[in-house]
Amino acid sequence: MTSLSFRIVGLGLVAALHACVAEAASGSEVASGEAAVRPLLTTWGEQLDRSAVLPEYPRPQMVRDSWTNLNGEWDFALAPSGDGEPEAFERKIVVPFPVESVLSGVASEVRPEDAVWYRRKFDPGKHDGQRVLLHFGAVDWQTKVWVNGIEVGEHTGGYDPFSFDITKALTAKGPQSLVVRVTDPTNRGSQPHGKQSLEPGGIVYTAVTGIWQTVWLETVPQTRIRSLRVTPHVDSGEVELVVDAEGPGLDKTVVRIATKSEGGAPLRVTGKPGESLRLAIPNARLWSPDDPYLYELDIDLAVESGKVHNVVDHVGSYVGMRSVAVVPDERGQSRICLNGKECFSFGPLDQGYWPDGLYTAPSDEALKWDITMTKKFGFNTCRKHVKVEPARWYYWCDRIGLLVWQDMPCGGERGIGPSEADPTCSPESEAVFRAELEAMVDALSHHPSIIVWVPFNEGWGQFKTNEILAWVKGLDPTRLVDGPSGWADRGYGDLLDRHDYPGPSIHPPEEGRAAVLGEFGGLGLVTPDHVWLDVTNWGYQSFDNEKELAKSYKSLIDNLWLLKSDGLAAAIYTQTTDVEGEVNGLVTYDRRVLKIDPNKAAIWNNRLYGPAPKLTTVLATSQDPSSMGAEWSYSTTQPAADDWMASDYDDSAWQIGRAGFGTPNTPGATVRTEWDTSDIWLRRTVRLDDPQLLEDLYLLIHHDEDAEVYLDGKLIKTLSGFTLDYTIVPLSAGAKKLFRTGEHSLAIHCRQTDGGQFIDLGLVAVQTEPADAATAEKGSSSNLSKAKGRGSVRR
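Structure tokens predicted for Beta-galactosidase (795 residues):
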């Protein structure tokens, strides 16, 4: 990508920014060589004020008053990694935007053999008798830091916060010099790097290098609180707190922790640093997506002086009282339970990428917007996909009420396919992975919104699977561990996770493991003027307009709801926004266009949080390979009469075959009668005897491609495109009224143009248990999960 150097002073200058983006686009290439990067900006990116870049306090789980934000314009240089500090820093960069991003003002590609250098002056302020800490929210990947020419520390890792005590390196007066050097092999190395790639395209995206979260100074006492560990225990009505402290005289210090009950009564506990302290919260108000209530915490560190203790350090924090577990329901199906109650966890896959800031959101408001919009769509969950966010993102999830499945950014020496055994990786690669995974768990364990750790995704860098999963469970036994998400499952983990595009489907449930759909959907729609690439945009299934997209989305959600009867406990839809060439977001990449009306989506999605339906087969399909398959009359030449679908039509000259009809190479098909021409016409007489089963009928159909379904000569459903497996399709109210007890004539016309082909049809009755029933999940299970697709798609 062409190097850029530009400046944005204050608000405005949008035209200048667009010009720089266009300059970057004109010299860029993607892996395919067929598409140019488009100049995409979010509203927040257009309004970026370089004098106040991400000014919010960056660590809301442990707040102090005395701090200085170092975000903004720094000097910048790009040089070979073997060279020393450059003599001149001739360019400017806006911290904390990654070097490759437009908002950084650099937008340059960084190769593994490069080093990026940052430099700035700063004023530490008055700090007599205190320590000055330099904090980095995250830097990708290897970092060295000098203050006034003195090396103060180094750090390896792309996603965790770190800090250095720089007090001894400060001079008595005058501005101080800060220099930072970063190297990053991106996907040329085996370290965790997530979706970053030096060859972006398809499901991998533009690389990210350097400082990408807030840099800040903090003045702290000599004896001070270093970290907090906050663990809610809902069953006992307590919060477990471990306050780690450092500095002189720790043997004479005490920790005081205070909060207030919901009614305002003070609640306190006192103890020693490093001890496990239990703060009782009687009748605690529990945290949930519907009621994200947080207890504010005041934490003091006091030093004994005679008969009194003087407070030397104070931090503010918070806790959400919530529990999560996998528990069998009355039918023995494993369910995710939040605070002891079944909770269907449903939300989008969230990549956390921005067209202007890449890994870094252009503002705190932008971070919050993604979460708020996710809730408006009717989701209660989001899966943060192979990326870690700044602490404020999780803070907003805590405040707004959004459950989080947190992925470990993938890396490793190689990936594995669905049926491959775990590979052996080098001790060095394993050590890096474990160190960064443990750092992620430690840094994020405070947040009540996080309920699931996802160590592996689809075999990407997967190794020692069960050992790693068990190790993570040991690090944090209060949360669920996915095992792993999609593909090469080894029988361990709280979740049995399947990926299916577009889906939906699940694995047959297992005892003690909740059956979840870790990825599905991927419905794509190109929105002109809001795409990253000129061409080669894609989705797992593409649509021409928003109406067809919404129709298909609703159909997926209807089928998802029906899968609850088979034990489906959670699902993750791909995805929140478009990302670079992927156009399968609910929202465009620039966050300017909502592709589906969130009010309508919320109505469809909210159905998932109610009781599971009871499904009864009214007319069986041929999906079970052990069955004979129903007999149909069929013709592969167009009938001479236009009334071929009528009840009294004479089809005695047609052939007789058993369902399903098609070619064996069609995904999800059980073929008993081969059909390889362009069209097929089918007829069958059926008898329906139970009037209660006719109140809410659905088609259970696998069609490849377009199909028309008739009942007694009347068209009851037109289906376009194709399915990859059996799908339950709702009927209109008018079509449902046509069904009655007695004999009926069913007729189908299916046409095929390319690829595999298949047609088979059945009927399913859907009955809903009362929403307030104590046994909301009881009822007979269908074989729908067995009917769904076996294929997985790489993400």
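The first strand starts at residue 67 and ends at 69.
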